[in-house]
Design a protein that fits this description.
The chain is of the alpha/beta class and about 130 residues long. It has four helices and four strands, in the order βββαααβα.
Length: about 130
């Protein structure tokens, strides 16, 4: 861990979503990339990550099916939540929940341009719901 801290409250789930291409901020807390693929054009040294949690990302099959088609987002979110219910997904969620409770909380990072209709946003909601 890098030790970055910010406005999070220990014990509370403080989770936010940002694009990985944005500069790290003092309130980011733990910065975790939650995409299955490494972001194009981004050097690993420039990413300012604490972790890369591929296990929290949707399966390649689901990601390809979705294709960032806004009309498929609701169904994508349902299918993704179902995937997160599997053993690998539950383990990843437990890890992310622990990070969210830490000092400064958790920033989920994604390369996706449409953050509002992204897997990272679905993941943020799942963590906030405590499910």
């Amino acid at each position: 861990m890098s030790g970055r801290t910010g406005g999070g409250v220990t014990g509370k789930r403080d989770v936010r979503v940002r694009r990985v291409y944005e500069e790290a901020g003092p309130g980011d807390g733990a910065r975790v990339l939650v995409d299955r693929l490494w972001p194009r054009g981004l050097a690993k040294e420039a990413a300012e990550l604490d972790e890369w949690c591929k296990e929290a990302a949707p399966s390649s099959e689901l990601r390809r099916w979705y294709g960032h088609d806004p009309e498929r987002f609701e169904e994508f979110a349902e299918r993704y939540r179902a995937e997160l219910g599997g053993p690998e997904g539950r383990e990843a969620l437990d890890r992310l929940r622990g990070l969210a409770r830490g000092d400064g909380g958790l920033t989920l990072l994604t390369a996706t341009k449409d953050v509002e209709r992204s897997a990272a946003r679905v993941l943020e909601r799942v963590l906030a719901d405590g499910r």
